[in-house]
């Protein structure tokens, strides 16, 4: 008999059955069984209550009257059928809302293309974002190609939420890399000064920064340097994003072994080659989970722009049920908006998990 046959590993023990695992994990003792049964009962009660309200006792007729909805014990989805335009498009003119819808599709397509590995080159990503952002702005703003001019004060709903999120990340992410590099500068004046700046921004609530950029900054700048309020608010949100993301990237850079930098120096590589080809790729890989979390938080924080007078999707939802005969249907409106947020945030989360698997984060 050959040596190979003599070294065949022995088969391990058979996996326990489902019944044995349930008994081992949830019914090992009488007290554990009681807690498991009570927890299961509470979970089923919550599921039934929500399903009964949202499906079995709900009103789905798009032409039902408010009185018919009040008479029902479940949800009134009629309000969504009749007010979805206000929720999604806000104050945008009714006859031009197709432009806002097309702009939303443009942003989603731009983000999806950016997530595909085949587009992960500088030129392709730059082309996608340049064309996508230009198309979005032309569609929303108009004033050319026969499209009526629509001012930013009339933008609203989902399109405004997506625009603020994309613009914040588009400005804030490169800025965060610059801040992280300056924070690690070998010159104490620069590193300590940038550290003080980052700490100062992070010590302020985002609301105060939005107020400052929307209201205070115009008094500090000359007329020719003042942009519209929407763009000033985006700059404030991008600065806040960059301050947090810079610390995330700096943490990722600290996780890179110092020996790699020394080896690159010994090979004669310049600073930008060391940073761009050795340090930053590994730092981004180390910082990926925290970076995805920062993007998720930034998407949800777009709802704060309501305090400076913008009609993002949450404010549009308030308007959808706050007027007319639908004031009682606020739960349905908030459930619909929560579903939209869930779709976007869950998509971001799943894409982050895909990137972690692709880059094998945490396996080294």
Task: Characterize the structure shown.
By secondary structure, the chain is mostly helical. 71% of the residues lie in helices and 1% in strands. It contains 16 helices and one strand. Helix 8 packs across helix 11 and helix 11 runs antiparallel to helix 14 (288-301). The longest helix has 30 residues, at 330-359. It is globular. The model has no long low-confidence stretch (mean pLDDT 83).
What are its keywords?
364 residues; mainly alpha; 71% helix; 1% strand
Topology summary:
Blueprint: H1 3-6, H2 18-26, H3 30-56, H4 66-71, H5 78-89, H6 97-115, H7 122-141, H8 157-183, H9 188-202, H10 206-220, H11 229-254, H12 258-266, H13 271-286, H14 288-301, E1 311-312, H15 313-322, H16 330-359
Helix pairs in contact: 5-8, 5-15, 6-7, 6-8, 8-11, 8-15, 9-11, 10-11, 11-13, 11-14, 12-13, 14-16, 15-16
- Overall form: globular
What Rg, in angstroms, do the CA atoms define?
27 Å
Number of extended strands: 1
Beta content: under 5%
- The unreliable regions are none
Count the helices. How many?
A: 16
**Secondary-structure element sequence?**
HHHHHHHHHHHHHHEHH
Q: Biggest sheet, in brief?
A: none
Helix content: over 70%
Helix/strand-derived category reads mainly alpha
Mean pLDDT: 83
For the terminal residues, how far apart are their CA atoms?
40 Å
